[in-house]
Amino acid sequence: MKIRLDKYLADMTAAARSEVKKQIAKGLVKVDGQTVRRPEAKVDTKESIVCLEGTQISYTSFVYYMMNKPSGVVSATQDKSEKTVLSLMEAPRKDLFPAGRLDKDTEGLLLLTNDGGFAHRILSPKKHVDKIYYAKIEGPVTEADVDVFAEGMDIGEKRRTLPGKLKILFSGEISEIELTIQEGKFHQVKRMFQAIGKRVLYLKRIQMGNLRLDETLKPGEYRELTEEEKEKLC
């Protein structure tokens, strides 16, 4: 695929298109060993060798990251008042976005990509991709609650939720559970527990499909998915 040189560099660096044009005009960019000063010059994303100040900049069409999202940041590309997940990344691509969202106070597995088709495949309820959460719940969680979740629930929307699989890890004053759902409605896990008169104290997504959160990632850390991990999701 052939694209403009300034787009190529803007896609692959954190620099604005205007800054990239300045770098090109200063003669800091070489294509196949030749200095190029025209931002509109076309380069082949697969064949051309593009160097910025002596460093080769390879072009990757799609990228996929796993992040252990910390509490206190929002799952958005930008926000006027809140810190976003992209602000935790070093020089993120401008076309990167979170595939799905986690609430500001929810932690855990978040995928970031620039592949819209991939995002649709893993987020669409019709694709039946499991999303597994670990949560701490105020008060005892019972087997009766398990049955209610398994039937699908009314959380105040036109349609009931799809059936959820509730697993009790510990039941007590503060219960611990795992919940598997296949949707991503606004505040869904919290609203499901509210519907049975219980409150979520802590929430963390630990798995999507067959992809489990890399527990070596500290909150706020991220890494690219391996080919094997991408295959698990696709």
Q: What features would you describe in this structure?
A:
The protein is 20% helix and 29% strand. By secondary structure, the protein is α+β, with helices and mostly antiparallel strands. The longest helix is centred in the first third of the chain and has 9 residues, at 17-25. The model has no long low-confidence stretch (mean pLDDT 93).
For the terminal residues, how far apart are their CA atoms?
A: 24 Å
Overall pLDDT: 93
The chain-level structural class is alpha+beta
**SSE pattern:** EHHEEEEEEEEHEHEEHEEEH
Strand count, sense and closure of the main sheet?
Answer: 9 strands, mixed
Helix content range of the residues, please? 10-25%
> Number of DSSP helices?
6
Number of strands: 15
Alpha carbon gyration radius: 22 Å
Unreliable stretches (pLDDT < 50, length at least 5) are none
Strand content: 25-35%
Shape: elongated
Which characteristics define this entry?
Pseudouridine synthase; 6 helices; 234 residues; alpha+beta; elongated; four-stranded antiparallel β-sheet; PsdUridine_synth_RsuA/RluA
Element layout with pairings:
Elements: E1 2-4, H1 5-12, H2 17-25, E2 29-31, E3 34-35, E4 42-44, E5 50-52, E6 55-56, E7 64-69, E8 97-98, E9 107-113, H3 116-123, E10 131-138, H4 143-150, E11 165-170, E12 174-181, H5 188-194, E13 199-208, E14 211-212, E15 222-224, H6 227-233
Parallel strand pairs: 9-13
Antiparallel strand pairs: 1-4, 2-3, 2-5, 5-6, 7-9, 7-15, 8-9, 10-12, 10-13, 11-12, 13-14
Helix pairs in contact: 1-2
